[in-house]
Amino acid sequence: MSVIPALIVGVISLQYSSHALDTLALKQATTLQKINANQTTQHFIDIQNNIESLADSLSLLIEKQGLETAIVDVDPYGQSLFSRYIERNNYDDLFLLDLEGYCFYSVTQQAGCQTNLVSGRYKDSGLGEVVQKTIAHSRYHMSDVTSLSASNTAPEAFIAAPVSVQGDVVVILAMQLSAASMGHITSERSGMGNIGKADQLGALATASVLKTTTLTMATIGIVVVALLAFIFADIITKPMHLLASVIRKIERTGDLSIRYPDFTRDETGQTGHALNSLLESQQKAIEQIHLLMGAIAVGDFTARIKTASQGDLGHLEQTINQSVSTLELAVQEITRMAWVMSEGDLTQVTRNDLEGEFDNIALALKCVSISVEGIVDDVRAIAEDMKQRGEAVGISTKHAIELNNLMKFFSTNAQDPSSVKAKQMLQSEEIKRLVSDLNG
Q: pTM value?
């Protein structure tokens, strides 16, 4: 998730940076072209000024000395005025032509010398073109870059200007500029500062380096982010796996004493702490239930669950306590009924509304009480009848005494259910023996 935004930002930044550098390179190239164009224009303006200045100087020289003297006059080093001029100004040659186009002088004595540039074989050359235009218009002209002859393939350019004496054109002055002589224009750096072809190439190189650097950094960033993602994923998932393992172990074994061992302060640690609290509360509740069931098993119905759990566990504890309370009341009532019946009081009934099997037990006790009460009534009747018969037939004194005691027992039992003597007689076999003697 972090790689995708980084890539988007990197690509956008790379595009904007590359566009900015390309724009800068284009502006520098445009500026270079403008400067070169301006310098070229200025160079040819200087060339025009130079040849026109030379034409003016030659016009004065012709007025003072004549043309022949100007041509043949040399300095102590053997150089003429024209040879010195082309050497200093980096021209290839200088020509003098008459108004008919005939070239009568050349510093280097080229092929065009001693020919007519208007009607001769070089009339279609660059030199012939510029000479013809100058003669026709009596002003400065410059030809395109071309060759003087088919045998000479080197590119050249020619300029020409009229030489006037007292307002009349007397001669045509022409000069030859080679491509080598014009090459210094494009290499001229004055006034350009740091702008130029090298700067354009530098800008393009900078753009290329920027792209390469950005792609390299993006690749490194992706690798680093991927490694960090794996490291942090392991740091995050390891506690989660431990928590899941603890939960699976509890599910498999049912052992609520198992605890999550990591207590870090992060979200996983908080979850583990909450799980431990839940297990502890459930374990305490189940322990209370075990203690209660153990007490019930040994006949102690007074025990209760004392933990205050919440939710479903709390409802379960409340239901168990209510069940034990109901069981305690039922057992107490059944015990009371049994003790009362054991003491001879057969007239008691249950005082609580019992349900289920406890109600069946109470009903069975009531039935026993009714049965025993019927038996007692029958025995009382038999005893009364025997007493009357004994008086009539004369029963032995011993039997009469026993019969009298039996009558007293039933009479006392009816009036005093708590009599200890009645309880003892019910527990003995004397009644059975007496009844057997009487029947015998």
A: 0.41
